[in-house]
Write a structure and sequence with these properties.
about 350 residues; globular; 10 helices; 11 strands; alpha/beta; single chain
Length: about 350
């Protein structure tokens, strides 16, 4: 089954053609990062207008790279939330047009579910299990614990089956990716903050500053809070402004504190709920320290950890196609009357 997918939840315009939910024939992403850098963050109005300008060329390029035509498609999937409502609207309208004109099923997909299903794409996902760290990927199996970590969301989800999810914990304030962006903005490192902090941290000492690991106490369960770490970085810099600090040490220590909390709670959720599989998802899953630490700690606990390839960590339509394929099989098509929902729950 050939699925065309469209993803416009934030600032990237993406289209992909995927066969049977696993074989990516094409994946095209038009990034808007340069448009938003000077503002230090995403400007919703600029994002939605840019989506309108490039959506048709991006879809056309995805079909051309896949060597397919509109007539070859069996269904069209689209992100319908959560995200910026103006951006979502562009993608939903485009998908409705394709569905209606070709008389093929329309599938509305939750953006967070899409990130989870990036682990199902059969190209290059990494997987290791305790006792055999060189084990090749065998495919993701239910049930699994998924850590979804991005600029807008940080949550631990128990996935029991296709469409059967239970949120075990989530952030009470800033998402991890949001904290990365805010720290990078404060330190004048540029936007987006995640990649530049990841890069600079490799040159720093993660033990230089002992930032507190928040909410690791039993009473907080699997919930997170990252506003405190962000504030701790600001306070440290203000207190030590005259002493001469290495930015590399600051970001390395900050990153280490965030990753320690993410990994500790994810592994704990898997062990305490008797689930042997962990998946990582979301834009922050591209962070090199998070990837390596989750692999290491998971292996030490005897857990199988699956991590999506770098090209499917950030927002992309291939993951939406994969999730849409399984949602169509499980629940059937969506109605043409579907609307974008900015705060759509998983």
């Amino acid at each position: 089954m050939l699925v065309l997918a469209i993803e416009t939840s934030c600032d990237d315009t993406s289209a992909a053609v995927v066969n049977n939910g696993v074989e990516v024939l094409s994946s095209v992403i038009a990034s808007q990062t340069e448009f938003h850098k000077k503002y230090g963050g995403i400007v919703p109005e600029i994002a939605s207008r840019r989506h309108i300008e490039v959506i048709n060329p991006v879809i056309k390029e995805a079909l051309e790279r896949a060597d397919k035509d509109f007539g070859d498609l069996d269904a069209v999937a689209v992100t319908c939330g959560p995200g910026l409502v103006g951006s979502l609207l562009v993608g939903v309208c485009a998908a409705k047009a394709v569905s209606y004109s070709l008389d093929i099923p329309l599938i509305g997909v939750n953006h967070l579910e899409g990130h989870m299903y990036a682990n199902f794409i059969n190209s290059h996902s990494l997987s290791k299990r305790g006792g055999n760290p060189n084990e090749e990927r065998e495919g993701v199996s239910f049930p699994f614990i998924c850590l979804i970590v991005s600029g807008g969301h940080t949550m631990i989800v128990e996935a029991k089956g296709y469409g059967k999810y239970r949120t075990l914990g989530q952030t009470r304030d800033d998402a991890a990716g949001e904290a990365f962006d805010k720290v990078a903005r404060f330190l004048k490192l540029g936007f987006p903050g995640g990649p530049v902090i990841d890069r600079l941290a490799k040159e720093g000492d993660p033990k230089a500053i002992d930032f507190k690991r928040p909410m690791l106490e039993e009473e907080y369960g699997y919930d997170f809070s990252f506003s405190g770490i962000k504030t701790a970085v600001v306070n440290y810099v203000m207190r030590n402004a005259q002493r001469g600090m290495r930015t590399q040490d600051i970001v390395a220590s900050f990153q280490r504190a965030v990753v320690d909390v993410l990994v500790e709670k994810t592994v704990k959720a898997a062990v305490e709920n008797g689930i042997g599989n962990i998946c990582l998802a979301g834009g922050v899953s591209a962070n090199s320290l998070l990837r390596s630490e989750l692999m290491l700690r998971g292996a030490e606990a005897g857990l199988r950890v699956t991590i999506p390839p770098f090209e499917y960590t950030t927002d992309n339509a291939a993951m939406i196609a994969c999730a849409g394929f399984h949602r169509l099989k499980a629940d059937g098509p969506s109605q043409l009357s579907i609307k974008p929902v900015a705060g759509l729950k998983l």
